[in-house]
Specification:
Length: 1240
């Protein structure tokens, strides 16, 4: 039978035997709430921590709507909300705070419980229970650890928080619910408190089990009936089975014999194919060796072809360069030859021109002398006629001036009123004339000086002209010397340029070689890199980089880089050393530690270091004395300082002729033996070997890498030397170019100076222009002097007029003078015109002669003289430049011959390399064809081997099928292994098998398992009979269990009712002095006794409800709940709550405004009872056993009975709670009552 519910055990008080009092079963019970922390819950937005609660009575006060009920709801949120399912999203959202500011996304309530009495099964004095909720979460935490809701429920039940008694937390409205509760509802409440739900659930489970048991019993009966029927059928089938088994035995024997014979045939064929496959495998290995040889030949030929192609390209570039140089030099030689011929022709022309010019110059000199004589005769005549014209013009001007003066005096009277006005005007004219006269005299003076200088310049002596000619000759000589020097520098520059081109070609060859070596080195580097893991390669590269960057000198490199060995031992050394080839050798362990630290800080991977100062390889082993064994370390070449590292790796390694020798000596001398092909016998007994691709050899890649590095280093050194020599030649070329430019500058300066000197010689166009300018200046000077003379005469006339009297008319003498002057002016004008005509005619004749002399004869004379001089200079220069051109031509021809020889050599080498390249291409095609043939052979062998394997697979499958057929035959009779049956042929065996199969078919469908089924069905019948007995026994046990549960349920109900009724009477007397109250059970048998044999279930069925009868002080009759006032109903409901609590006590109680509907007297009684219960004392031990109460109120009575007080305030849509004094609590109550009265 089930045990009573948990809340009936432990600390729950019992009715029977003892009275139910306030005392607890556990005298150490001091469990209570210490602190409550709330954040984001309803009106509590910010984190609030309620001060430590008293273990007795705690009172919370605050204005209506301040958040007191929400504070109790927070406690109930953790401790009381344990029955329902998970909260919906809208319910969780309602719990979260909604107010001003940022929206709250989560909330939590945390309760600290004093567990010093260890009422909770947790080994902590303080237990922290927390519930956190969000829009999508609802979690519980126990001591900061996540727990489930079920674990929280079990934990609280273990401390006395019964799920069936929810009255340890009494929120608003719960008391009112009790006041309006009907009798039937009170009965259900009491059943809940009594824990009858558990019994009911167990009873329903038992009834379900009962139904299942009955169903199983019915099923067993049906199966027994079916088995009896089947046993009768199987009894008839046993005889047919015996005949069938005889025929089946004969068939099995025949089938086994046939299968065994065919299997033996298949195995023999498999053995023959295996032998053939071994032969084919050996052929395949030979083909692989031929393929490897062909591949190696192709690779070597490709390398040679690549190198030859590079050389061909270089030679092609050299031939192109030499051809370009040859073409350029050929053009230069042709140009120089043309220049030499041109110079020769120019010299001949210059000589002829000089002779012709000298003859013409002699004739022209005679003509010049004749014209100069005529000019000498005409010049005095022209001068005389010009003097007559000038004199007549002066006389005319004086007469006109005098006449003009008379005219002016004649008109002065009409112009001026007085002499003063006239004189004033005349003086102004005098000043203007004087200024003009002074200006003209100054201009005439300046012009006279210029004419005088021109005459002095024109009168240079023949000595000065000779000096100019000498300077001209010096400049010509300097120009010639500079030209010779330029030729020398150009020749030297050409030689240096040729040398520089040779160096450029050499540098190109070396650069191409370095590119080829670099590409091959990268390939070898990749081959070596691919032979090791990527992480190891990166780590080794990091070691090199760190050692170079940090200046660590003790890092020598990998083991593979520190030795050399004959090529035929490559495979053996690699097999023996393995990855130890990539260990890094260092000088000391300090260096290794430093490198490890740097690698660790740089996250650069892992490397194994071998510090030489720490290696202790031990003594050398005793090597076998045999021609078939060679100690491996003796074949290695390395520096003596690295001996410890190599002894550490190769000390116990030897090279043996074959595996048989290695097997013998590895055991006897404890050595690792390796063959030249890489097969190894470990000294521990392990053998390893197989095919190794020599193209991926690490040592071969390292040797190739080292060889290429040396070749690359030599090429780089040669390139550096060529570059240095090129720089030296470049410096020489720069110097020669500088000197050439200086010589060219001197040549240009000398030529310019010679040209300037040539311009200053007589007869030149410059001298003619100078003479023309001088003539114009003389003419202008004459005009200026004549104008000045006119101004002086004008000035004299004005002075005379100023000195004369101011008269209205001329005097008689003046009139006569005027008439005479008019006649003189006419005469003088006529004579002047005639004189000027004569002078002009004579001057024109003179000018024609002078122009002819100046523009024709003298100009031609100068041109001829210049031509003679230039011809002489050209002859002189042509002689020297002819030698220069000859020298340049000889040098160019020499360079052309050299270039032609080099070009011929380059072409020969190019043709030779081209022929070699063609041969290599043909060889490559031959090797590729051979390789293709080997590959084709290998493919053919592979196909043949595949076909062989396919046939073998078919035979193996056939043998396996026969073996499987034999297995499927199962157990065989011993006659199957009779040797006499093996003599039968396969055909005879198949005939016997067919005969047996026909006989078996005649029998029809025989139940081959009739005997086994008969025995099995007998066993099943016995088991089912036993099972039916067990089921019947289980039905009896279940009925007994149901009766027991009903009895226990009845006992629990009666015990709970009696306890609650007793405590109700006691509490009512305490809260209502002078009053009485009792609980009555209403049944269907009112006034009638139940049968003594009635079951517990029937007794429970008679309970109809619980009624309450009370009598208040001063009353005469008992009353029901419907007859009471609102305050009286509240008091009765509180009595019922306290009665239930005393029957099922909890560690603490939480009441929310339970005194709201009570009058002052009843509130005082309630406060007194809470105070008494909060400070309860054990009646037997006398020890204090307080019960914690947390209440809210609007009345002062509970405050007077309280021990700790808290005030709740609401501001800015958020509530806070803090500890206050009793006085403050009373003040808050008084203020609230005043507000209520004011609103009323």
């Amino acid at each position: 039978p089930p045990a009573p519910p948990r809340h009936f055990r432990g600390r729950r008080s019992q009715v029977s035997g003892k009275s139910c009092s306030l005392e607890r079963a556990d005298s150490r019970d001091a469990m209570h709430i210490k602190q409550v922390i709330v954040e984001g819950f309803k009106c509590y937005k910010d984190r609030i921590e309620a001060a430590p609660f008293s273990p007795k009575h705690n009172v919370v006060v605050g204005a209506n709507g301040s958040g007191k009920s929400n504070f109790f709801a927070a406690i109930q949120f953790v401790l009381g909300d344990l029955q329902g399912g998970p909260l919906r999203a809208d319910e969780r959202k309602q719990i979260l705070h909604e107010g001003a500011g940022a929206h709250v996304m989560s909330a939590y309530v945390e309760i600290h419980i004093d567990n010093s009495d260890y009422r909770l099964p947790v080994e902590h004095d303080t237990v922290v229970l927390k519930r956190s909720i969000g829009l999508k979460k609802d979690e519980y935490f126990l001591d900061r650890k996540h727990v489930t809701k079920t674990e929280v429920v079990n934990l609280l039940e273990s401390a006395g928080f019964s799920k069936s008694n929810p009255y340890n937390i009494v929120p608003q409205g719960k008391v009112m619910t009790l006041t309006t509760m009907k009798d039937e509802q009170r009965l259900e409440l009491l059943k809940e408190v009594a824990g009858t739900r558990t019994y009911t659930e167990r009873r329903q489970e038992s009834l379900g089990i009962m139904e299942e048991t009955s169903a199983r019993r019915r099923k067993v009966d049906e199966m027994l009936e079916m088995i009896e029927k089947r046993l009768k059928e199987l009894d008839a089938e046993k005889q047919e089975l015996a005949e069938y088994q005889g025929l089946d035995k004969r068939r099995k024997i025949a089938e086994y014999t046939y299968y065994d014979k065919e299997q033996r045939k298949a195995r023999e064929a498999l053995q023959r194919m295996d032998n053939q496959r071994v032969d084919e495998t050996e052929k395949t290995q030979q083909q692989q060796q031929h393929e490897e040889a062909a591949k190696a030949a192709v690779i070597d030929t490709e390398k040679s072809l690549s190198a030859t192609s590079s050389e061909v390209n270089l030679l092609k570039d050299s031939v192109t360069s030499y051809s370009a140089d040859y073409k350029r030099l050929l053009e230069e030689v042709a140009r120089l030859e043309m220049e030499a011929q041109q110079q020769k022709a120019d010299l001949q022309v210059s000589s002829s021109t000089e002779r012709e010019a000298m003859n013409e110059l002699a004739q022209l000199s005679d003509q010049v002398k004749a014209i100069e004589a005529e000019l000498a005769r005409l010049q005095p005549v022209v001068a005389e006629k010009n003097a007559d014209a000038t004199r007549l013009k002066a006389d005319e001007e004086r007469a006109e001036a005098k006449l003009q003066q008379l005219y002016s005096r004649q008109t002065r009277t009409s112009q001026f009123k007085s002499k003063a006005d006239r004189d004033k005007h005349l003086r102004k004219e005098v000043k203007a004339v004087e200024a003009a006269l002074a200006k003209k005299e100054q201009q005439a003076s300046d012009l006279a000086q210029q004419v005088e200088r021109s005459k002095r310049d024109a009168g240079r002596s023949e000595a000065e002209v000779e000096a100019v000619r000498k300077r001209l000759g010096g400049h010509r000589k300097a120009e010639e010397d500079a030209a010779n020097e330029c030729v020398t520098h150009r020749t030297e520059h050409s030689k240096l340029t040729d040398r520089r081109k040779q160096l450029w070609r050499r540098e190109q060859e070396l650069a191409e070689a370095m590119r080829t070596h670099t590409a091959e080195l990268d390939k070898a580097q990749r081959t070596l890199q691919q032979s090791m893991s990527r992480s190891l390669w990166e780590s080794v590269e990091a070691v090199r980089h760190i050692a170079a960057e940090k200046g660590i000198n003790g890092v020598f490199g990998m083991v593979i880089e520190l030795f050399d060995v004959d090529e035929k031992f490559y495979t053996a050394v690699e097999t023996a050393a393995g990855n130890q080839l990539f260990h890094v050798v260092v000088d000391t362990d300090d260096t290794a530690a430093r490198m490890l630290t740097e690698l660790q800080s740089a996250n650069a991977g892992r490397v194994t270091f071998m510090p030489l100062n720490r290696l202790r390889p031990g003594s050398d082993p005793e090597y076998p004395v045999s021609e078939d064994v060679i100690p491996m370390i003796k074949k290695l070449k390395f520096e003596a300082r690295f001996l410890p590292a190599f002894k550490q790796i190769f000390r116990k390694c030897v090279v043996v002729r074959n595996l048989e020798v290695g097997t013998r000596f590895s055991k006897s001398h404890d050595l690792d033996c390796v063959t030249l092909d890489g097969d190894q016998v470990n000294r521990k007994g392990a053998l390893s070997g197989g095919y190794l691709d020599i193209r991926r050899s690490r040592l071969r890649a390292q040797a190739e890498r080292l060889h290429l590095r040396r070749k690359l280093s030599r090429a780089e050194q040669e390139a550096a030397a060529a570059a240095r020599e090129g720089e030296k030649i470049d410096a020489e070329v720069t110097g020669v170019l500088g000197e050439l430019r200086e010589a060219e500058n001197r040549q240009r300066k000398a030529a310019t100076a010679a040209e300037q000197e040539a311009l200053e010689l007589p007869g030149s166009s410059t001298a003619a222009a100078s003479r023309s300018v001088d003539a114009q200046k003389e003419k202008a000077l004459t005009a200026l002097r004549s104008a000045a003379e006119s101004d002086r005469r004008r000035l004299e006339a004005l002075e005379e007029e100023i000195a004369s009297a101011f008269e209205a008319e001329l005097s008689l003498d003046e009139q006569q003078q005027q008439e005479g002057l008019q006649a003189d002016v006419k005469k003088l004008t006529k004579a002047r015109v005639q004189a000027e005509r004569d002078a002009t005619k004579a001057k024109q004749q003179l000018e024609r002669l002078e122009a002819d002399l100046r523009e024709n004869l003298q100009r031609r004379q100068g041109e001829l003289q210049t031509a003679v001089d230039e011809a002489a200079a050209s002859l002189s220069k042509g002689g020297s430049s002819g030698g220069d051109v000859s020298a340049l031509l000889a040098a160019a021809q020499e360079r052309l011959a050299t270039t032609e020889t080099e070009l011929a050599g380059a072409k020969a080498r190019y043709d030779e390399k081209r022929a070699s390249e063609r041969q290599l291409k043909e060889a490559l095609e031959t090797h590729k064809a051979r390789l293709a043939a080997e590959l084709q052979k290998q493919q053919d062998e592979a196909k043949e081997l595949d076909r062989l394997l396919a046939r073998r697979g078919v035979l193996a499958q056939k043998a396996a099928e026969f073996a499987d057929c034999i297995r499927k035959l199962g157990s065989l009779p011993k006659e199957s292994f009779d040797e006499s049956r093996r003599s039968l042929s396969s055909k005879q065996l198949m005939a016997e098998i067919e005969k047996c199969n026909k006989d078996l078919q005649k029998l029809g469908h025989v139940n081959k398992k009739a005997l086994d089924q008969f025995a099995n069905f007998n066993d099943q019948r016995d088991k089912l009979l036993d099972r039916r007995k067990e089921v019947e026994k289980a039905e009896v046990s279940i009925r007994s269990l149901i009766e027991h549960l009903d009895h226990k349920k009845d006992e629990a109900m009666e015990r709970t009712f009696k306890g609650v009724a007793k405590h109700f009477s006691e509490v009512f007397r305490e809260l209502v002095p002078g009053g009485t109250g009792k609980l009555l059970m209403k049944t269907t048998h009112e006034g009638r006794q139940l049968d003594q044999d009635a079951t517990a279930a029937s007794r429970l069925a008679t309970y109809q409800g619980i009624s309450i009868r009370v009598q208040f002080a001063g009353g005469t009759d008992t009353q029901t709940m419907n007859q009471l006032s609102g305050g009286q109903k509240t008091m009765v409901a509180l009595c019922l709550i306290f009665a239930i609590q005393r029957c099922d006590p909890a560690p603490f109680y939480i009441f929310d405004e339970i005194d709201a509907n009570l009058d002052a007297a009843h509130r005082a009684s309630l406060a007194q009872m809470i105070e008494h219960q909060a400070g309860a004392v054990n009646a037997e031990t006398g020890e204090a056993e307080p019960t914690q109460f947390i209440t809210t109120t609007f009345r002062p009575e509970l405050i007077h009975a309280g021990d700790q007080f808290y005030g709740v305030t609401h501001r800015n849509k958020a509530s806070i709670i803090k500890s206050i004094t009793k006085v403050e609590a009373l003040r808050i109550i008084a203020e609230d009552q005043n507000r209520v009265r004011q609103h009323a």
